DUF1822 family protein
Amino acid sequence: MINHQPGIFQTIIPLKTRVKAERFSRYQYQRDKAKQVYLNTLAVSAVNSYLNSLGWSTNLEDSDSWNPILQTMMNVADLQVPNYGKLECRFVLAGDDAVTIPPEVWFERIGYVIVELEESLNRSTIIGFARKVNQTSLPLNQLESLTEFPGYLSQQQPVAPIQPITIDRWFKGGEDKDWQEIEKFFPSTLALNFRSPQKAADRIEDRLSSRINRVKPIPFLGYDDLAIALVLNIQPKSEEEFDISLMVCNSELKDLLPKGLEVIILDGDSCPVMIAQTKETKTIEFCFSGTLGESFTVELTLDEQIIIESFII
């Protein structure tokens, strides 16, 4: 049953939602983390129902909160609104006077919707929203009324999708302004290890005998002294199959990567397939194969910042 009045959206939490939350929580070994995932799932589901009732499309499957690996890595409760961005859906329990919003979700959100869960966890009530957040504890009396939310959401500008880099065109002489040749980025002694023919390769015979390397500097706000580079090494195996080596390193090479830097490789369905986190290391490297037309995404996370690079082979 749904109670949908101006300023109120209250609903009984369906059994299937509680079952989904229980399944997600079972991926966690720590009791507190399992509870966090369970309650986050209930909050996201409540906001999903609310948006659907307003006629907005949502995509749970593309939300980080619906991914068991990312649930483990982060305290995340996002809901993807296609073409607009992510809403963060944070829960409070009955009697709370503030909502906790971790720093890792202060960015890349179009808003924060707050859901109150009854002690029995059988009913949820959306109690308000915030446009932006820059504090861990947000008093509930500072939330905007839910009556303002539909208008606020309608004012959001559609977000242009991230344009993926087409790797195959590099073999045909194509260039991308943010990606440099190894020789132009690293010292010559290192570049020798990566160097490859730079001529355009239109014939498959030429492409099979060639190798392409590109590098891009990865900036993180607030880390002016940190120089991270993303290096791609692509070697054709056949006309449609490629071996790909992806390396993350410090641009100075001799320096260690910052602790806590996380790198995730996602397949074309946005499912994580490889993951690594730095401790005391100079490089992170992944090796995999792909076929012409396949896509993959690289996510680099440091503290609360996420940088995304998408590719089509």
Notes: The chain has two domains: 2-154, 165-312. The mean pLDDT is 85.
